[in-house]
Each structure stands twice: as C-alpha cells, then as structure tokens.
TrEMBL record:
PANTHER family reported for this sequence: SIDEROPHORE TRIACETYLFUSARININE C ESTERASE, SIDEROPHORE-DEGRADING ESTERASE (EUROFUNG)
Entry annotated with the keyword Transferase: no
Residues passing through the membrane, by range: none
Record's signal peptide: 1-38
Alphabetical keyword list: Hydrolase, Signal
Name of the protein: Siderophore esterase IroE-like, putative
Classification via Pfam families: Esterase (PF00756)
Family according to the record: Belongs to the esterase D family.
Amino acid sequence: MMHVDLTATGWRTAAARALLYAFLSAAPFAVGSAPASAGGPDPTGPVAIDDTAEYMIASKVLGSPVRVAVWTPKGEPPVGGFPVVYSFDADFSFTLFAGLAENLAMTGRSVGKAPPVIVAVGYPDRRLDTDRRLLDMTPPSDHPAGRFDMPERPHGKPWSPLGGGDVYLDMLVQEVKPFVSARFPVDPERETLYGHSLGGLMTLHALFTRPDSFDAYVASSASLWVNNGQMLREATAFFDRAGEALAVPIPLRLTVGSQEEDLTRWERQQPGDLVRRRAWVAGNRMVGRARDLAELIAERGAGQIDLTFEVLDGEGHLSAHPVSVYRALVFAMER
C-alpha cells in the first residue's frame, strides 16, 4: 500500500495537501493497489488519461521533433472557444495539469467558468534531459559579449550551453500555437503561458520581450538567479520602453514558495556536499529575487502589468509546483 508522508517534502499546508488528494483521486487507477499476484490477470497496457492526445511535431524552427500533449474539456466550448493554457516541461507538468483541470471543470462550469484546454510541450523521449532543458529554458545573455554570469553548481560540474530560449519560444509561438488553434476550439484572446522554475524564467522573458505573444502569464518559482538576475534587468528595460498605461494591463501571476531559500528535510538527508547545496539555495535568493521583481513591477509597471504576487506559505521549490498549477488554472478560468 502506498504511504505518502505529507511532512517530508513540503506538503505542509492545507492547500497543498488538498491538491495532492485531488490529484491522486483524479488518477484513473488505484493508487494503493498491490502488484498482481501469481496467476492473476496480466497488465493490459499503460495507464491512459481520459480526454488527452499526444502529437509529435517536426519543428522546422528547432530542427528536431517536439512532443505536444493536449487535454481538452468535455462538452461544448463557450462562445469564442475555450481558454487555453500553454505550459513548458510537459514531462513533469502535463499529468498534473490534466488531473487538476478535470477536478476543476465541473465546479467551474457550475459558476459559468469554462475550463481551459491544456497544451504542454516537451521532448520526444519523455526523458528529462537537463542539458537540453538548460539550453531551451534560458534566454540569450544580455551581456555584450554573450557570456553568462552563473553561480557554481552544487555538484561542481561546469554549465552546459545556455541561451537558446528565444528559439524555443519561436517554436512555441510560430508552430505549436497555430497547430493547436487549427485543431481545437480555443479562444485566441484567452491564451495563458505557464512555467515553473526555468520555465517560469522563460515565461517572464516572453512577457518582457514579446508581450503580445500571450494574453496572460503565470511564472511559478522562476529561476531569477540565472545570469546574475538578468530577468530584473529585462523588466527594467521593458518599463523603459513602455509608453502610456495600457487600457488593459497584461495579467501576470508571480508565485514562489516561502521555503525556497533552504533545503527540505529530504534534501538535507541526500548524499553529497551539504554545505555546497545550502550555499546554492541561499545564494539563489528565490524568495528575495521574486520580491524584488514584484516591487519593481509595483513601482514602475502598474500601468503595464496587472500583477498578482503570492508567497506560498510552507512550500519549497517542488511542492510549490502543484499549488501554482491549481491556481494557474483558476487564474485562466477567471479571465
């Protein structure tokens, strides 16, 4: 029988526990079931998630295939189409989005809020390729020579190539969005971009460099430490370029876990250099940099960006993810 320790990895708040229970209850299989006994039925195949489809797009922009996972709500779309949430990192975000969206759909419809179509992009082999992700999920350096000012990694290894984020965004905007709009009844005026961690960094980069690409943005636990805080410089440049206040400021939801500047109990028990890993999370200043960005937007961007900023009490970098997904769905449905 599966046992989930709700205190071990950051599942400390009532909201986070409710999300976990909702997600587990939405899964179309028995979480606590034991393996089949000898002589019992054989597996019939992998578990499938209802109302989902997967596509492999041959991206001309990237020069390589892209996996696109889509969840669609049941029933007729509203006038204008369903809202749509585009997410990075399909490999660990899509099932979370699909399960929670299914749970929210019935409640949302009962109060006149249509659930969104979920579109998540990932890699063909479903494997978390850290080096590829670092390339795709970091913007080009704003340094004149193109170099990156990066902290020492906890394991001491050198950084793999960085700065391919604009090409990855081109793929999303120029290839994935048209693919989706041609096949699904989505509202082109209710498109939300979501990202967590490095994905959150790229969500903000899209907002500050190509704000018309999406209608709203959700950045969860964004890696604002990349290139010595480049994203705050991008935000400053965005406000320097901005003219008069927009008639409708761009909605941005920015969140971070309150415990993201320390190690969780499990992380403290992992092998390796504990001092080096503590220095990593403390030096990245996940909470501090998120507050810095929120303050900058409040001071300079009130007429350009409609900011919702939240520090998620009791959550670390991993546990903040499902909480932010749930609230991103509500955010998209209420717009």
